């Protein structure tokens, strides 16, 4: 039986993961909120997704020998999000992909892009210093922001600028001079291609530090002076109060509630400063650990009060629907279609629109993207042969008893993920259900009719306004 | 101004070059030694120049644009920028979208123009964006913009084949997207967007259905998008402003091949689009604005160019007096902004104001937030 915690746990699983079937939610609810949260925060307690199944269907993911550059990795990632037993590992990778937005359109180097996302999985819940150091040595990032063109005698400030503006502190907390100093400190941080491209297939690049291309001169950065290297720059950045606040605001925006767009943050205060203060405190106390900060976040009242109030990103919408309808655990040709679906909703995994990532919240929605969201969701849910839909129908049928229109609507909302809709929306659904009377499963004809009614009601639910929110 | 389908009111087509187009490598000061000295890697060589006078020339990859220029249809606005140019992409783009360099604006200039053109939201197609994701230029509370990712399959519940079933689903959708009191800004916005989609989709069906053309557009995104604009324009649905984006101009590295491809795609698409409208006799009331968020640094960085200032815009149309407008920014190193950037010679808000007042017949002051020097590019 669904306990009182079930809607709240469904909320946690939507935000820290990508949703779950109702049967899974019931299992989680029996464990309790705190235990589920600890499991989410410790992905290593659960086995990794079986890489060899992915490999068998789509060649090796890392040492890749060809195929379409954009679609397939995105499809494989969506497959992982659906099937992983470590949902927060994928969600935190998606978070860092938002913040450290690196685009395949420029890199055209799939193995390095895959390595970057794998790195986010590996260190995404660790401390910010570790994360920024990994990022600064990541070949996909170094190429994306041209640090391979950042030379001792000819600095390229792209990485230095974005490291400060977008990846750690935010505008208004440093000067143009600090950017130039950071750029100098990262001269010589580049990558090499150990196996030549193309002839042997494409292989991951490797970080390399070129001492003779590094500017070892004295630099003054954020008030400190020394012959700084990139590592020193990261050390100085992570102890800035502005960094804690900026990263925590990002976490809040991604996991709790929609904030104004990032470029306004130096001028527009947070909607709920006290909620971010709680995160900053956990961040600072833990030495910048993301796991500890997220523990505070998911335990906070502001998070629990934010149920169904944040606009789903396209990836959340698509993966949530796939979790609901159930897809094969063998990654077939369909996975490219799912990747296309998020692209049509204006979010292409591995290919954010620019280094500033995606605009979020209400900006996900316009006439075009709303059309894509509704059509995708309705198309998937409308297929009664999908295992998740079959399970919902069977659950209705196994109860046997005739259901009133009210009870029918409420049960559909419950089985679609312990959802709540506004009174007016529910009233629309109930009115619609009333026109067909009670839901019955007495004989085959009634069974068929009722199946059709359940599917149509689920279609209406995933098309409605409330379903656009997580 | 009354907005009714079928009139010949002036139409504006906005093409956004995302990432910061390198104006110096689009209209090249080829005779200037400083240019060549500053750009040993990405500088355009003499043989790749299509001169328009003895100092300036189009980059050869822009040959189709030069054709239109030679026909007197292209006004080149040189040295577009604003004081204290912002080098961040999103902030830079936000500024040219909102016309608010000092504070963070939330209303786009195109949206404000749409509000003037159609104050009571009588036509959901007054402004049509072709592309996925809506640039902030078109965003403002209460302003309706129809954003079309795929013109050929636009509409809700298009996967349902049974007509009765689809109609029932559309009815339910409509009822659940009816605005209700006290449910908040996001729910209201969703409601408005949903209702607009229903109406826009019904009317946009006419565009692909009624279109035929001799012009063979290329298959790249900007060509496809301009073809979609042509199809909607030719369907006479009352659209006054079209908007589309062409991405990829942020070439800090590897600029030479990237810029060549983009400028070639863009120029070809614009030429084909213009031809398409001309063939249909539908070009007289159309002006095209091509703009970008900033120019690029004067000196190259050994592979590409970093974010800079002093970009350029193009105004293209049958009503245009072709030629050069405003001044090319000085290449004299003593005149460089902060010792590394072009100094702009005309404010971008003056370019918008020119189009809004002289082409669209609107009062530009409230839309661009003040009075700015305009050019006179129209007959």
Task: Describe how the helices and strands are arranged.
The complex is a heterodimer of chains A (470) and B (379).
Chain A: H1 6-16, H2 22-31, H3 33-41, H4 51-58, H5 71-83, H6 87-99, H7 104-107, H8 110-123, H9 128-136, H10 139-144, H11 158-165, H12 176-185, E1 189-192, E2 206-209, E3 219-221, E4 224-226, H13 230-238, H14 241-255, H15 273-285, H16 290-299, H17 301-304, H18 314-325, H19 334-344, H20 367-381, H21 387-399, H22 405-415, H23 423-434, H24 444-463
Antiparallel strand pairs in A: 1-2, 3-4
Chain B: E1 11-18, E2 27-28, H1 33-38, E3 49-51, E4 57-59, H2 63-70, E5 74-81, H3 89-98, H4 109-117, E6 127-130, E7 146-148, H5 163-176, H6 185-204, H7 206-209, H8 221-234, E8 241-247, H9 255-279, E9 286-292, E10 311-317, E11 323-325, E12 346-347, H10 348-359, H11 365-368
Parallel strand pairs in B: 1-8, 1-9, 5-11, 5-12, 6-7, 6-8
Antiparallel strand pairs in B: 2-4, 3-4, 5-10, 9-10
Largest interface: A-B, 60 and 62 residues
> What is the residue-averaged pLDDT of chain B?
92
According to DSSP, the number of beta strands of chain A is: 4
Q: Given this structure, which CATH class of chain B is correct?
A: Alpha Beta
SSE pattern of chain B: EEHEEHEHHEEHHHHEHEEEEHH
Low-confidence stretches of chain B: 1-6
Structural class of chain A: mainly alpha
Continuous helix count of chain A: 24
- Percent helix of chain A, as a range, is 55-70%
Compact overview of the structure:
The complex is a heterodimer of chains A (470) and B (379). With 470 residues, chain A is mostly helical. Helix content of chain A is 55%, strand content 3%.
């Amino acid at each position: 039986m669904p306990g009182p915690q079930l809607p709240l746990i469904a909320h946690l699983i939507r935000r820290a993961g990508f949703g779950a079937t109702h049967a899974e939610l019931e299992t989680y609810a029996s464990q309790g909120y705190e235990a589920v949260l600890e499991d989410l925060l410790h992905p290593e307690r659960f086995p990794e997704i079986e890489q060899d199944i992915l490999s068998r269907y789509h060649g090796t993911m890392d040492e890749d020998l060809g195929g379409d550059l954009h679609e397939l990795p995105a499809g494989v990632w969506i497959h992982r999000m659906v099937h992983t037993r470590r949902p927060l590992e994928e969600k935190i990778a998606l978070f860092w992909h938002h913040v450290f937005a690196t685009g395949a359109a420029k890199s055209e180097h799939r193995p390095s892009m895959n390595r970057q996302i794998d790195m986010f999985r590996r260190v995404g819940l660790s401390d910010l210093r570790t994360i920024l150091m990994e990022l600064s040595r990541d070949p996909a990032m170094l190429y994306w922001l041209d640090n391979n063109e950042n030379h001792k005698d000819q600095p390229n400030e792209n990485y230095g600028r974005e490291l400060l503006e977008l990846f750690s502190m935010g505008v208004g907390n440093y000067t143009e001079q600090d950017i130039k100093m950071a750029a100098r400190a990262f001269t010589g941080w580049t990558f090499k291609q150990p196996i030549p491209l193309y002839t042997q297939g494409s292989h991951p690049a490797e970080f390399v530090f070129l001492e003779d291309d590094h500017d070892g001169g004295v630099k003054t950065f954020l008030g400190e002076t020394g012959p700084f290297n990139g590592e020193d720059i990261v050390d100085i950045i992570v102890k800035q109060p502005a960094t804690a606040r900026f990263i925590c605001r990002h976490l809040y925006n991604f996991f709790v509630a929609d904030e104004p767009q990032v470029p306004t943050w130096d001028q527009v205060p947070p909607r709920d400063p006290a909620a971010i203060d709680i995160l900053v405190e956990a961040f600072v106390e833990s030495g910048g650990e993301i796991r500890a900060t997220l523990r505070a976040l998911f335990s906070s009242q502001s998070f629990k009060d934010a149920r169904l109030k944040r606009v789903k990103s396209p990836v959340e919408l698509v993966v949530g629907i796939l979790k609901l309808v159930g897809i094969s655990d063998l990654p077939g040709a369909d996975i490219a279609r799912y990747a296309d679906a998020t692209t049509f909703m204006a979010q292409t995994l591995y290919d954010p629109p620019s280094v500033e990532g995606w605009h979020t919240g209400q900006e996900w929605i316009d006439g075009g993207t709303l059309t894509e969201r509704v059509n995708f969701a309705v198309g998937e849910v409308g297929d009664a042969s999908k295992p998740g839909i079959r399970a919902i129908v069977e659950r209705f049928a196994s109860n046997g008893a005739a259901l009133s229109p009210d009870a029918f609507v409420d049960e559909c909302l419950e089985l679609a993920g312990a959802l709540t809709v506004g009174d007016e929306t529910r009233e629309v659904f109930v009115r619609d259900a009333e026109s067909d009377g009670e839901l019955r499963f007495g004989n085959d004809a009634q069974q068929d009719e009722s199946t059709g009614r359940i599917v149509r009601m689920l279609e209406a639910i995933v098309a409605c306004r409330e379903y656009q929110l997580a | 101004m009354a907005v009714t389908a079928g009139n010949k009111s002036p139409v504006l087509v906005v093409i956004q070059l995302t990432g910061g187009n390198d104006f110096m490598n689009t209209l090249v000061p080829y005779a200037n030694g400083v240019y060549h000295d500053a750009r040993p890697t990405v500088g355009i060589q003499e043989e790749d120049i299509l001169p328009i006078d003895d100092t300036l020339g189009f980059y050869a990859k822009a040959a189709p644009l030069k054709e239109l220029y030679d026909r007197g249809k292209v006004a080149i606005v040189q040295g577009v920028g604003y004081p204290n140019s912002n080098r961040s992409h999103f902030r830079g783009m936000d500024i040219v979208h909102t016309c608010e360099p000092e504070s963070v604006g939330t209303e786009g200039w195109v949206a404000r123009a749409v509000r003037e053109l159609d104050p009571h939201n009588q036509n959901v197609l007054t402004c049509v964006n072709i592309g996925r994701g809506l640039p902030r230029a078109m965003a403002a509370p209460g302003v309706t913009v129809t954003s079309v990712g795929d013109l050929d399959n636009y509409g809700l519940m298009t996967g349902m084949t049974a007509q009765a079933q689809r109609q029932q689903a559309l009815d339910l959708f409509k009822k659940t997207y009816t605005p209700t009191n006290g449910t908040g800004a996001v729910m209201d916005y969703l409601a408005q967007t949903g209702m607009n989609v229903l109406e826009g989709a019904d009317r946009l069906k006419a565009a692909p259905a009624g279109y035929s053309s001799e012009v063979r557009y290329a298959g790249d995104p900007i060509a496809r998008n301009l073809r979609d604009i042509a199809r909607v324009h030719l369907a006479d649905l009352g659209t006054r402003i079209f908007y589309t984006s062409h991405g990829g101009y942020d070439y800090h590295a590897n600029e030479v091949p990237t810029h060549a491809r983009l400028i070639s795609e863009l120029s070809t698409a614009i030429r084909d689009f213009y031809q398409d409208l001309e063939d249909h006799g539908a070009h007289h009331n159309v002006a095209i604005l091509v703009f970008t968020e900033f120019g690029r640094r004067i000196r190259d960085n050994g592979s590409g160019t970093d974010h800079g200032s002093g970009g350029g815009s193009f105004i293209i149309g049958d009503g245009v007096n072709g030629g050069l407008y405003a001044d090319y920014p000085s290449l004299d190193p003593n005149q460089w902004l902060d010792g590394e950037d072009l100094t702009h010679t005309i404010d971008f808000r003056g370019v918008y104001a020119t189009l809004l007042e002289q082409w669209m017949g609107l009062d530009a002051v409230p839309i661009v937030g003040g009075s700015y020097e305009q050019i006179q590019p129209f007959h």
